[in-house]
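User: Please run a holo structure prediction.
Assistant: Happy to. Please share the sequence and the ligand.
User: Here you go; the ligand is zinc ion.
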Amino acid sequence: MKYQPVIGLEVHVQLKTDTKIFCGCSTQFGAEPNSQTCPVCLGLPGALPVLNKKVVEFAIKAGLSTNCSITPRSIFARKNYFYPDLPKGYQISQFENPICQHGWLDIKVEGDDLKRIGITRIHMEEDAGKLVHGDVSGLDDGSGVDLNRACTPLLEVVSEPDLRSSDEAVLYLKKLHQIVTWLGICDGNMEEGSFRCDANVSVMPVGSSTLGTRAEIKNVNSFKFVKQAIEYEIQRQIDLIEDGDTVVQETRLFDPNSCTTRSMRSKEEAHDYRYFPDPDLVPLVIGDEWIELVRSELPESPELRRQRFVTAMGLSEYDAEVLTASKPIAEYFEAGVGAHGNAKLVANWVMGEITRGLNDSGTTIETCPVAPSQLAELLKLIDSGTISGKIAKTVFDEMWRSGKAPHTIVEEQGLVQVSDSGAIESIIDEIIHANAGQVEEFRGGKEKVFGFFVGQVMRASKGKANPTVVNELLLRKLKG
Ligand SMILES: [Zn+2]
C-alpha cells in the first residue's frame, strides 16, 4: 500500500520590536538572565498588560503580505497551562478571532508549477521564558529560570494541512522566512529561535480522503532539521501502520544528532487549555484606515521586485530569483546597478565574486567589505580597458582584504593593462624565439599549441597584457 503524507506547519515568528508585547522591557537577545523583566512579564499579581502597538502593526504587515484578511475586532485569550517558565500560569494568546485569517502563499514546486498553500490564521501571542540547566548560580547541576524572553512578541502562522512532502514544507517555510525578514518584522535568526516551527505530520493511504492520526514535532529550528524530522516521522508512521500498530496523537521532539523523533507527551486538545478571553485586555479594533496606512508602508514585495528585475532590467528569471532571495541582496544589487548601469554585468559579479567572498568569509551582504559603489568603480576600470577582467579578480580580492579603492590598488601594484602593441610585440618575439619547437608544431597544423603561446605571453606580462591585442599579434607573428 502506498501512503500520502499530510503536513501542516505552525511557525513561530519572533517580532523585531524594541520592547515586549505587553510591557516596556527590552527584547534584546543575550542579556544577563532576568535583567530585562518587570512585574508584568514576571507575572506578579496585580500587574496589568498593555498591548504594544508595534506588534499589531507588524501582524497586519504579515497578514497583508500573506493574502490574509485582517479581523476588524480580534481578542486576546488566556491559554492556561503550568510550566516553570510561565509564571502567570497562562500564556496570553489569541484563540477565537485571531488578527489575520484565510490567507495563502504560493510555492514553486517541481517544474516551476505553483502550488497554493492555505494559511488558516496568524495570531499574536507572548513567548514564555527559558529554563537553563547545568551550571546555574554556582551549582554544577542546577536548573534556573530566565524570564528575559517571557512576554516577547510572537506571531504564530498556522498553515492548512496542504503540504504533501518534506520538500514542500521546506519551500513553504523558506518563502515565509523570506517574507517576514523582507518586511523587517523578524530577524529570521533560526539558531536563536527567532523563526521556528512545529510540524504536524500524518499519513494516509493514497486515494483516501480520511486524514490519519497526526503527531506534532515541536520547535524545529533549521530548514535542514525540518526536512529530516518530517521524513523520519513519515517513515515511522508508515512502519507502525504496516506492522498493524496505530499512530497515537502526541507531541514529539526531534533529535538532530540521531535524526529521529521521540515522544514528549500526549498531545493536548484545545479544550485542555481552557481558553477564555483575557479580562485584562480590551478587544482590539482595527479600522480600515489603519490597515490602509500599513498597506501604504509595505515595501515592494520580493515577487514584484523579481518581476521588475526581469522586465525593466533584462535579467533572466534565474538571476532575478537569486538576487531577490533577501532584501539586502536586492538592495546591494540595485545600488550597484545605480552606480554602474549594466545590470547583467553587476548581477554576474554579485552572484559570482561577491557571493563567493561572503561564503568564504562567513559574512553577510550587510557587512560586505566591498560597497556597491566600489564594485561599480572596479567594473568601470574594466570597461575603460584600464585592467583586464582577469586582473579585476585580483583587484577585487585585494579590495575585500584591505578595503582600499580599486584605482588605488591598480596604481599601487602597477596593474594597469598593457594594450601598447610595441610592448606586447617585444614579449611575443622573445617567447617565439625561446620556443622554436612549438612554433614548428603550430606551423605544421597543430593549432592547439596556440593556447600555450597565449599562456606564456600572459605570464611574462604578469597578466597585464590586453588579451585581445595578444591574440591578434600572436596569430599574425606565428603565421608569418
Ligand atoms: Zn516586562
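Residues 298 and 404 are 37 Å apart (CA to CA).
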